[in-house]
Amino acid sequence: MKILKSRKALSPVVASIILIAVTVAVSLAVAIWMGALSTGFMATEQLSFIDCQYASDLTYVDITLKNTGSGSLTISKILINGYLNTTAGWTVQGGADATLTPNEAVVIRVDPSKYPPAAGIVSGKFDRGANYAFTVITSKNNQFGPYTKAASP
């Protein structure tokens, strides 16, 4: 078999430039793809307790919460002393939603009559001077707290 000597191949310099260009293009495509995949995982939930004010007759407590994370969060449960309410035991004040965007604050009113007596609730009210630990759970099952404060108006 006779090898054709009249045909010329690419020069080594041109071949090297083409290989480098292809490598850069593929690595950029992979970097963009990975960045798009990880963007959804970058948002974090972080909730801070700002204030806790009991009513003068101890029939409710207003808890001020602030979303200090980088992603939105939705409050799904509030526990008192580790006990879950039997029915809807809390409401968001001012007609706001239980979903907080980053840096948004909200006041939650907690009704102790909706919690079991084991939580330390006496006759549907907070017991004056008793410590109560409030824990907030989000829709992603992240737990924040407990935030403890003695019941006093």
Description of the molecule:
There is one protein chain. The chain is α+β, with helices and mostly antiparallel strands and 153 residues long. It has two domains: 33 residues; 104 residues, Immunoglobulin-like (Sandwich). The chain is built from one helix and eleven strands. The strands form three sheets. Strands 3, 4, 6, 10 and 11 form a five-stranded antiparallel sheet that branches. Strand 3 and strand 4 form a beta hairpin. It is rod-shaped, with a radius of gyration of 30 Å.
Key structural traits:
single chain; about 150 residues; alpha+beta; Immunoglobulin-like; five-stranded antiparallel β-sheet; four-stranded antiparallel β-sheet; 1 helix
Cα gyration radius (Å): 30 Å
Number of domains: 2
Low-confidence stretches: none
- How would you name the oligomeric state of the polypeptide chains in this document? single chain
In short:
With 153 residues, the chain is an alpha+beta fold. Helices cover 18% and strands 37% of the residues.
Topology:
Layout: H1 12-38, E1 47-54, E2 61-67, E3 73-80, E4 83-84, E5 90-92, E6 99-100, E7 105-110, E8 121-122, E9 125-126, E10 131-138, E11 143-150
Antiparallel strand pairs: 1-2, 2-7, 3-4, 3-6, 3-10, 5-7, 8-9, 10-11
